[in-house]
Amino acid sequence: MRLTAFGGIVILMFWTGAVCAISFMEAWIKFQAPGVTLPIGLSIGMRVFRALNLLEWLLAAGYMFVVVREYSGISSGIKWFSGVVVSILLVQSFALLPVLAERAVRIINGETLPGSPVHIIYVVLELMKVIALVVLSFKWYRNSNVKA
């Protein structure tokens, strides 16, 4: 296996773990802690998701370096799933997170807001992104022609 392909797999698996740990564990577990009110939980969540988003962009940049470097030797499936992951990250970063942050600030400031589908859309995209990251990891492994 080429070192760059191995690096791509490592980036994808780390990225998957980070998203799962934050989005599917920390995000809701913090609200279970004694004394954590909705405004406090939202304030923590805004900071954590801002940091996760920055980490995701750094990982995406490293991963795209691998894709560009290996472009002629990778399958169309890898290229397609890579586009899916980056597209999801773009939508989350520039369309959904700003709306969620604005809603959080309004709730922190004491407003009562009606329900919004934005959070559900974000979670569905997180699930799709994690699935795509795992599929990509396996596709890279298969693409590397390694015999187990």
From TrEMBL:
Domain of life: Bacteria
Transmembrane segments: 44-68, 80-100, 120-141
UniProt keyword list: Membrane, Transmembrane, Transmembrane helix
Protein name, entry field: DUF4149 domain-containing protein
Organism of provenance: Thermophagus xiamenensis
